[in-house]
Design brief:
There is one protein chain. The protein has 15 helices and 13 strands. The protein is flat. The chain folds into 3 domains: about 110 residues, 2-Layer Sandwich (Gyrase A, domain 2), CATH 3.30.1360.120; about 110 residues, Four Helix Bundle (Hemerythrin (Met), subunit A) (Up-down Bundle), CATH 1.20.120.430; about 160 residues, 3-Layer(aba) Sandwich (Rossmann fold). A 7-stranded mixed beta sheet has the order 3-4-5-6-2-1-7. A 6-stranded mixed beta sheet has the order 9-10-8-11-12-13, with helices on both faces. A hairpin with a 2-residue loop joins strand 4 and strand 5.
């Protein structure tokens, strides 16, 4: 934290402008060594200056340099941003000169890591920065902006404040029982407060899990025996020919993936090899991979051929997917039906065909209905956004439920307090009040270098 870091903050390639960023106590003095135009050590904060980057009297580029003095910066350290002409050679050369003059190449996410460690943002806001960078839809962007603004952090802090007050009152009652002017914390009062906390936390977790698909999307696996139209279904979803379609069994030997958006929610579609017994080594590997994807999928589309009776392979696939979130898709509904309806009567069934642009619409509507996509549209995006946050919230909930159970059993108050403190600590870990270096390093390693 005492050194000065530098990195390219824009995508590396040919473009009009690239930005090279530095942060640290020596950022301005290092920039001043290689800049001609004005003395950067004497300029006001949050100002932009025109000049040139030089290396041993050789002009490298014409630039604009932004100077931002701590603490009113992204990292709460002095920051310099060099706006140079875009291009791999020029941008890399500017970075190289800064490194030769005392800066160190930043690690992945180190700028945001410093913002967190210096107290400018908390852990949920740090995670939201990366979510914003990676957002592909308006919903993902709205969610990230909501958390960058700290709305989730404020909600978690409200929960912690209530628990802090409860813990404080319990400890005063234990340590100073002789005082008459303090609120007496009875078991019934504690139970009432715990019930309110549990209800709020349960609601947050439930809504967060339901809306997690805004970020992760719906992993959709297309399963079926050869030649029932799996690849045609994929192509119809994508509205272009991603997968090869032929009448030859075993054409698809490996998975083929594509992505679309339903009401702003990513649908990550995987077309698999036709499931059948085969002696072809490559196809056999593809079939095994297809079967393994059944366990990983959020949604399984089981494709059946409308103008053929169900085969042994069809029945086996239906059996393997019966307890999964799935839709039985009867393809080629423009042909006469030969399928025995009684064998699929307990399944969610959609009839489609891939010969028409509208042939897949009924399937899209069923997916929207199953995942309540029309109900995800909301103005309140204050919820947990990843498995780390959700798992910690569940641990906090578990601790509160243990405390409530202890209260129901009239356990001594000082024993109940142990579980309440544990819940308080878990909630603190969500926003980064308590953390380990390992967790922080793992979190920021997924960032890009210049952020």
């Amino acid at each position: 934290m005492n050194d000065t870091i530098a990195a390219i903050s824009t995508a590396l390639g040919v473009g009009a402008i690239s930005i090279v960023r530095m942060s640290g106590k020596n950022a301005i003095s290092i920039a001043n060594k290689v800049f001609t135009g004005c003395d950067l050590t004497k300029v006001k904060s949050h100002t932009i200056h025109y000049g040139k980057i030089i290396d041993k009297n050789q002009v490298i580029d014409e630039v604009l340099i932004s100077i931002m003095l701590s603490p009113k910066t992204y990292t709460k350290e002095d920051i310099v941003e060099i706006n140079c002409h875009g291009g791999i050679s020029t941008t890399n050369k500017v970075l190289e000169i800064l490194l030769l003059n005392g800066a160190r190449l930043a690690e992945r996410g180190e700028f945001t890591k410093r913002a967190f460690l210096n107290g400018r943002i908390d852990l949920t806001q740090s995670e939201a920065v990366m979510d914003l960078i990676e957002s592909k839809t308006n919903k993902e962007r709205d969610l990230a902006i909501n958390n960058i603004e700290g709305k989730l952090s404020k909600l978690i802090e409200e929960y912690r404040n209530d628990l802090r007050d409860l813990i404080s009152n319990i400890e005063v009652n234990i340590d100073y029982p002789e005082y008459q002017d303090i609120e007496v914390m009875t078991i019934s009062k504690i139970k009432k407060i715990l019930m309110g906390q549990i209800k709020q936390l349960q609601k947050l977790i439930e809504e967060s899990e339901n809306k997690e698909i805004i970020k992760t999307g719906i992993k959709t696996v297309i399963i079926g025996r050869p030649n029932v139209g799996k690849s045609s279904v994929l192509n119809s979803f994508l509205e272009y020919d991603k997968a090869i379609v032929t009448s030859i069994e075993g054409t698809t030997r490996d998975i083929v993936e594509g992505n679309i958006y339903l009401d702003g929610i990513p649908l990550n579609i995987i077309d698999t090899a036709g499931i059948r017994k085969t002696n072809d080594i490559v196809e056999k590997i593809g079939v095994e991979k297809s079967l393994s994807l059944i366990e990983e999928a959020d949604l399984i589309l089981v494709i059946l051929n409308n103008n053929e009776k169900l085969t042994k392979a069809d029945i086996e696939i239906l059996e393997k997917t019966k307890n999964k979130t799935s839709i039985v898709v009867i393809n080629k509904n423009d042909l006469s039906s030969q399928i025995e309806q009684e064998k699929i009567k307990d399944r969610v069934v959609v009839s489609t065909n891939t010969t028409s642009l509208k042939g897949i619409d009924s399937l899209k509507e069923k997916i929207k209905e199953m995942f309540n996509l029309d109900k995800i549209e909301t103005k309140d995006y204050t919820y947990l956004t990843n498995s780390r946050q959700i798992s910690l919230a569940k641990l906090a909930l578990k601790s509160l439920e243990k405390a409530k159970l202890s209260a129901n059993n009239n356990t001594p108050i000082d024993m109940i307090e142990i579980d309440i403190k544990e819940a308080f600590d878990y909630l603190g870990q969500i926003i980064g009040i308590d953390y380990s270096d390992e967790i922080i390093d793992n979190l920021f390693k997924n960032f890009c270098v210049g952020k």
